[in-house]
Amino acid sequence: PGFENLTMGYNKYLRPYFGGEPVQIAMSLDIASISSISESDMDYTATIYLRQRWTDPRLVFHGNKSFTLDARLVELLWVPDTYIVESKRSFLHDVTVGNRLIRLFSNGTILYALRITTTVACNMDLSKYPMDTQTCRLQLESWGYDENDVIFIWLRGNDSVHGIEKLRLSQYTVERYYTLVSKSQQETGSYPRLILQFELRRNVLYFILETYVPSTLLVMLSWVSFWITLDSVPARTCIGVTTVLSMTTLMIGSRSSLSKTNCFIKAIDVYLGICFSFIFGALVEYAVAHYSSSQKCAAKAPQEVNKEMEEVNITNILNSSIASYKRKFSFTSIEVSSDNVNCSDLTMKTHEKIKCVLRNKIHRIIGYFTIQNPSNVDHYSKLLFPLFFMLVNVFYWAYYLYF
Hints:
By secondary structure, the chain is of the alpha+beta class.
């Protein structure tokens, strides 16, 4: 038919069935690509083919054929005011001409297809990153016509969406998707809305090779110092400091890719914090063992010097013995020179007994925390550090993978 004759008296500013029943608009989607999913901006960019079908009785003509019209003729027809909810940026492709399609059927049905690239917001929960699963939506809604004027439906339910199951994304795998029909209640009315909801599961293998394995190896490298003697100060200090600095660099690198989402405490941050704690603990362990060893050597040094002096001069021995003998019977106040002093002496006053008991308890408590053999610190660390690290890993992976 002649298009000019068909649209004679046609008012594109009035919807079909104006003043009567609402127009039913059936939609279908083809997802051509999802080019990027940004955790920092919390959005995704997708290219879609949006197809809308409705019936306009004013465009009925005789015959059984359908006609594909020039896309520029869409300016002469009424089309739905569909928009993408939560879209940040969108554009219609126009190479080599505007990527639009108008097909007219004899019963007045119109097929209107568009090729759109849009960036849509997607609220993400990154607490389990990188073992997370994100749920994103693509929502289509009428801007000005409420449910009394238009009704949105999916053309074939879940089968109205194609292409999403064939997508190959760099970090994600599409787990499942489904379509929903909903309404948006606004102050100006209730508007029809169609929802495509899909779940994206992140591929964790990349992060295991890039972050988890190196951090675990750094922890194991810090344990090498337990097999080096306490006297090798440069070797053990070098291992401790190097592993701490390497772990710090790894933590900074893992957070740089998500610089705008630092408010989240992610699963990868927890693991890196655990590894850093074990590495720092190995460095502190050597400091404790070396300090205990130096204190023990310092305590033995005066005894060795006294033995040498005793061999040289017997007179000094006699003088020191007499002085110590007199000191035992001449002191008037209690001076605790050993770990425990007998406080049951009847000649002591009450406050002196209390002081004596307190001093004995303090010496006993200090004795509990005194390392008698510093070499045992390394011996126990060889067993305890790997054991605790394995237990922490079991709880960590069980929690983030199954809860």
